[in-house]
Design goal:
Layout (H helix, E strand, L loop, with lengths): L8 E5 L3 H13 L3 E6 L10 H5 L5 E4 L3 H13 L3 E4 L7 H14 L3 E3 L7 H12 L5 E10 L11 H4 L3 H17 L7 E6 L6 E6 L2 E6 L8 E9 L2 E7 L7 E7 L2 E6 L8 H11 L9 H14 L2
Parallel strand pairs: 1-2, 1-3, 3-4, 4-5, 6-9
Antiparallel strand pairs: 6-10, 7-8, 8-9, 10-11, 11-12, 12-13
Helix pairs in contact: 1-8, 3-4, 4-9, 5-7, 7-9
Length: about 300
């Protein structure tokens, strides 16, 4: 691979809904070149990862079923390519750790689409929590309930998915909790799962943080996505607006008073991948921040009891 161009040449592996969304975001931003697409189900696209890796690329964006992520990411890294992967990077902490170590050994930029970090309301809430203005943190609650379940069969096969709603939705909650609080992990982890062959409902107590997530919840709206942080001197919360998957409002609380800190519109959908592409264009290589992906996966493993 030659030195990274001003506009990195990216290959997209998987062109389903999420893959197309990320491809379109990159194309619209102009920060990188969409150089190739591989998806056997898409007419005119390349048929495999092997074909994609033969192209002159600087990075690969992976949006395939979860069971393939770790192997495909490792293969791309071994070819000297940067990688941006849909979550989860691996089905287990062991798989995730192996990919991070491969990126470290190859000295290549690794990103995972933990996209809620890039929502303005969640970033504002994090700033409030980190500022210390809430005083001593007493409790935090994060939920992600989806009125729908995945529409592909592999999601319901634990060997292919790594789990159900927890690894699909709860991964965002664990990541947001660690990222907002600035923690490396949790001492106390107690999980409860319901459903088979993969869980449809999951909850966990992580020190003073409680999370819950589900598929097919009778929520009266498309989704319930919330994160609230309560301290001795105040509170801050992010909630989705009107059941939306995309619109969020952040409010700060003092007693019975509330103040809006951020609200829609906020076009954040492609922000995470475009940030990764800009870092790649700037010549950034492996970052130790990738170890955060391992810490999230380790917490999920503990909730699963494995």
């Amino acid at each position: 691979m030659s030195a990274v161009a001003t506009r990195p040449r990216l290959g997209f592996l998987g062109a389903g809904w999420i893959g197309r969304q990320r491809l379109e975001a990159v194309a619209a931003s102009g920060v990188a070149e969409v150089a190739a697409v591989a998806d056997p189900a898409v007419e005119g696209a390349l048929g495999s990862l092997d074909e994609l890796l033969e192209q002159p690329l600087d990075g690969v964006v992976i949006a395939t079923p979860s069971a393939l992520h770790a192997e495909q990411a490792t293969a791309a890294l071994a070819r000297g390519l940067a990688v941006y992967c849909q979550k989860p990077l691996g089905r287990t902490a062991e798989e995730t750790r192996a990919v991070v170590e491969a990126a470290r050994a190859a000295d290549r930029l690794l990103g995972v689409d933990l996209c809620y970090r890039h929502v303005a309301s969640f970033r504002v809430a994090r700033d409030v929590v980190r500022s210390g203005e809430l005083g001593e943190l007493v409790a935090a609650e994060l939920v992600f309930h989806n009125a729908y379940g995945p529409d592909k069969a592999w999601f319901y096969d634990p060997a292919l998915s790594g789990g159900g709603c927890l690894v699909d939705l709860g991964i965002h909650l664990v990541d947001l909790a660690l990222w907002t609080l600035g923690r490396a992990g949790f001492e106390r982890v107690e999980g409860r799962l319901h459903g088979a062959p993969v869980e449809q409902w999951a909850s966990a107590q992580l020190d003073e943080v409680r999370i819950a997530c589900s598929w097919n919840l009778h929520a009266g709206q498309d989704a319930v996505i919330e994160a609230s942080f309560h301290g001795s001197d105040g509170g801050v919360a992010v909630r989705n607006v009107g059941g939306s998957f995309y619109d969020f409002r952040c409010e700060r609380f003092r007693g019975t008073a509330r103040e809006t800190l951020a609200e829609p519109p906020d076009d954040w959908g492609g922000r995470a991948i475009c940030d990764w592409a800009r870092r790649l264009a700037a010549g950034e290589r492996f970052s130790p921040a990738a170890d955060e992906y391992v810490r999230v996966a380790e917490t999920l493993d503990r909730i699963y009891g494995r």
